[in-house]
Amino acid sequence: MSSIIDLQRYPLHQPGSDAWHKLVNESRAQLQQHGMFSLEGFIRSDAVRDAAQQIQPVMDRESHTHSRTHNIYFKPSIDGLPADHPALRQVETVSHTLCADQLRDSLVSEVYEYAPLVAFLAAVMDKPHLYLMADPLARVNVMSYRHGETLNWHFDRSEFTTTLMLQSPAEGGEFQYRTDLRSADDPNYAGVAELLEGRDPQVQTLALQAGTLNVFRGKHTAHRVTPVGGDRERMVAVFSYYETPGVLFSPEEQLGFYGRTA
Fold first, then answer.
1. CATH no. for residue 190?
2. Which of 228 and 159 is assigned the larger pLDDT?
3. pLDDT band of 8, cuts 50, 70, 90
């Protein structure tokens, strides 16, 4: 794994060491302060370049194109809000997806299943254990965004999301987020409307480089990917881990996300 992950910089393989504890503590502090942390250069540059080149023809031939109009909640309605409330403004997302069964024997699958990475993430998140997702389609995905395409404003359903940037686009494709826009006790619909109208001064922008591992708490932090430009698409792997083993999507969820069932 040392030829893929920069283990000298990120010593995941040395749990309990001073260097490992330092990395865990620094990552945890970033997560608590900003709702996210990034490990730049996590994957070595030649390895991530080879991975993107390996995946590109499969993406071109076999990916599922997912185009949808949605609100920030991915729900048709919200109790207590009129249909024309500005917090329910409709936006559009277009992406192309490869599923786990299309990524067998790939670098992204190898990194996703790397036990020291799973243990490190559990330590940062203060979880006793994290488990690989059991779903044969959803456990690891690669998402691609081409010229003019975007992942629009939304909140995540899961507590945290782990991504690995495989290829940055020629233009655009920046990660924008608004930390703690809502809370479990306050949906802050007025603030959501302000964000969607482009009037929130606390929106932050992050240009992730190829090889960066990013861990993000998106349940209460709104986020999006700005429109991609140029002839090099934005390609990112999404890793799904859970606190309980055996997690599966329903056939309806598989069909909705991937256009097919396992």
1. 2.60.120.620
2. 228
3. very high
Separation of alpha carbons 110 and 94, rounded Å: 27
Neighbours of 6 (CB within 10 A): 19
Q: Would 12 be classed as within a structural domain?
A: no
CB 155, CB 193: distance < 8 Å: no
Neighbours of 238 (CB within 10 A): 17
Residue 10 in any domain: the answer is no
Q: Which residues contact 152 (CB under 8 A, 6 or more apart)?
A: 70, 91, 92, 93, 224
Reported as a single tens digit per residue, the pLDDT across 40-91 is 999 999 999 999 999 999 999 999 999 999 999 999 999 989 999 999 999 9
Cα separation, 174 vs 171, in Å, equals 9
Q: Which helix or strand (DSSP H or E) is residue 175 part of?
A: strand 175-178
- Tokens in use for 52? 């993107």
Instruction: Read off the pLDDT of residues 85-102 as tens digits, 9 standing for 90 and up.
Output: 999 999 999 999 999 999
Domain with 228 in it? 18-258
In a domain, 2, yes or no: no
Give every strand in the sheet of 175-178, ordered side by side. Answer: 151-154, 222-225, 175-178, 204-206
DSSP letters, 177-215, are EETTSS-SS---HHHHHHHHTT--TT-EEE-PPTT-EEE
Q: How many domains does the chain have?
A: 1
Q: Is residue 186 part of a domain?
A: yes
